[in-house]
Design goal:
The protein is an all-alpha fold and about 290 residues long. The protein has 13 helices and no strands.
C-alpha cells in the first residue's frame, strides 16, 4: 500500500507541475498558485462538511498550518530560481528536498533493509538525473542555487509536516483544507504586496476573463496537488516514511515524460538514464 500510494503521489505531483508550468507561461506564477489553491479550498470545504471532518479539529492541525505557510514560500522560491536558471541545474537540485522526510524517518528509528537502502540511493540518483542536469557550460548564479535549495527543503518540509497533521481519513480531509486555506491566505497576501509594488497579477492588457478561460486547468493543478498531498500522507502513515518519501519524489520523471508526450520535447540521454535508474530504485524500494 505504501508503494502504491507513494507512486500515485509522484504521478499527481508530476502532472500538477507540468500543468502549472504551462499556466505560468501565460499568467504570473503567484496568480496561478493563489487561483488554483482557492479552487482546492472550495472543493475540500465541501468534502469536510460532507464527511464530518470538522469534528477532527485538534492541535495536530498546527502541522497543516505550518505546511500551508512553508508551501507557498517554497513554490515561489522555486519559480524564481527557474527564472534565473539554468533549468537544467535548478530542476534536479529541487528534488533534494526528499532528504527532509527521509531524515525524519531515520531520526524516528526507521531502518530500511539493505535492498531498500540501495533503492533509496539508486532512486535519488535517478531523480536528480531525470531533471537533465547541465554538467558543464552552464553559468549558475549563486542566488539561483540558494533559492533552489530553499525551495527543495521547503517542499521536503511540507511532506514531513502534512504526514503528521492527521491520523484518520476524515482528519486528513480537514488537514488538507486547513493547509490550503493557509496557502491562499499567505499567497494572497504576497500577491497583494506584489501588486502594490507595481507587479502584475494578470497578463498585460487582459482582464479577469483570462482566469475564467483557464478555470479547468487551474482546477486540475490545484486538485492534483491536493490529492498528491493526501496520497503521500496515506503512504507515510502505512509504511516507512523513508520509502514513501523517495517513491513520492519520482515526479520529475513524470513531468519530463509529460513534456515529451504533449510538447514533443526530446529527452536528453542523461534524462532517459535518470528515468531508468528511478525505475530500478522504485522496484528495489517496493520490494
Amino acid at each position: 500500500m505504501t508503494a502504491l500510494f507513494a507512486l500515485a503521489t509522484s504521478l499527481l505531483w508530476g502532472l500538477a507541475d507540468f500543468g502549472g508550468g504551462l499556466l505560468t507561461r501565460r499568467v504570473p506564477a503567484l496568480t496561478v498558485v493563489v487561483a488554483s489553491q482557492a479552487i482546492a479550498v472550495l472543493v475540500l470545504g465541501a468534502v469536510v462538511v460532507a464527511t464530518g471532518g470538522w469534528t477532527e479539529w485538534g492541535p495536530q492541525l498546527w502541522f497543516a498550518v505550518g505546511a500551508g505557510l512553508v508551501g507557498p514560500v517554497a513554490m515561489l522560491a522555486f519559480y524564481k530560481a527557474l527564472a534565473l536558471g539554468p533549468m537544467g541545474v535548478v530542476s534536479p537540485l529541487g528534488s533534494l528536498g526528499v532528504a527532509v522526510p527521509v531524515g525524519v524517518g531515520l531520526f524516528l528509528g526507521e531502518r530500511p533493509g539493505l535492498a531498500q537502502f540501495a533503492g533509496i540511493a539508486v532512486a535519488v540518483a535517478g531523480i536528480l538525473l531525470a531533471g537533465g542536469p547541465e554538467l558543464r557550460g552552464a553559468p549558475v548564479q549563486r542566488q539561483a542555487v540558494l533559492l533552489t535549495l530553499l525551495a527543495a527543503f521547503g517542499f521536503g518540509g511540507v511532506m514531513a509536516l502534512i504526514a503528521e497533521a492527521s491520523s484518520s481519513l476524515t482528519g486528513l480531509f480537514l488537514a488538507l483544507f486547513v493547509q490550503r486555506v493557509t496557502n491562499v491566505a499567505a499567497g494572497g497576501a504576497a500577491l497583494y504586496v506584489s501588486v502594490k509594488r507595481g507587479g502584475a497579477a494578470l497578463p498585460e492588457g487582459s482582464g479577469i476573463g483570462v482566469l475564467w478561460a483557464m478555470l479547468p486547468a487551474l482546477a486540475f493543478v490545484g486538485l492534483a496537488d491536493v490529492a498528491a498531498n493526501g496520497t503521500y500522507s496515506v503512504a507515510a502513515q502505512n509504511g516507512p516514511v523513508t520509502v514513501a518519501a523517495v517513491l513520492s519524489s519520482v515526479y520529475p520523471v513524470v513531468t519530463a515524460l509529460a513534456a515529451r508526450a504533449v510538447l514533443k520535447e526530446r529527452l536528453r540521454g542523461i534524462q532517459a538514464a535518470g528515468a531508468g535508474l528511478a525505475l530500478v530504485g522504485t522496484v528495489l524500494l517496493a520490494s
